[in-house]
Design a protein that fits this description.
Lipocalin; 2 domains; about 270 residues; 7 helices; alpha+beta
Amino acid sequence: MSVMQRPPSVLDALTDKEVEVLRLLTAGHTVKTIAVRLGRSEASINERLRDARRKTGVGSSRELARLLDAQKIWDKNIDLSPHGSSADRPDQPPIAGRHRSKGTLVMLIASIALAFAAAGPAQQATTPEADQAAMAKVPPLVGRWSLDVMRIPEEERPQRVTIEFALAPDKKWTTQVEIVGADGSTMRGQSSAAPDGVPVASTGNMPFIDTVSLRHPSPGTLVMTLGKNGAPVSTRVYTVGKDRRTMTETIIWASTGIPKLETTYFNRID
């Protein structure tokens, strides 16, 4: 086979979406920042990476990303014409063809070496310091949170409450809530709203709300007003701690008298 032709590669089995995720991984992104950039869940991104590793047999996603980057350099520097190299064409002197092939081979080896050298910063992104730097670019609220149910009075305590916040490219916040009651019954609610205070419809099976409106006064704070039949039910202020692992929910219940305040506590689970 001529060195002017690219050898068959298991990387050819990857889909465009899998390649997209691997390219971002090579650029130094984490699963969390990729999910935010593409408007997908982290579970979806991890599933794409698992599929890519399964297809190629490469055990590490970052190693697979570096191999993909090396192939890109290969494709860029080698003529992929189906007619083969100039050394195989009768109108070219054989010696000239061989010299061109040797030069291309040298360039190819150098290019792959450079590709792996350039992959160094991406590999360093797995260090705690690099992960923290990447996390700093993601709004603190983004992710999944679990209610600390042990702080709830036993007679009112649900089995589980989870909230997931995601920020789409159009700057709308998607909120998904799941409440599993003490009896095992499950209620879910979802909404997607811009942080402009304008109510939007909430979907799901929560009978006590039908609209949600949002305000985002600071990176770590989200103000959510829940409504039913055009009237406010409660306003909830979500505030993320400095450690980005804890979040408080201050609930202000609507009433004609002095508002009733309630505080609950969440822990990050993503």
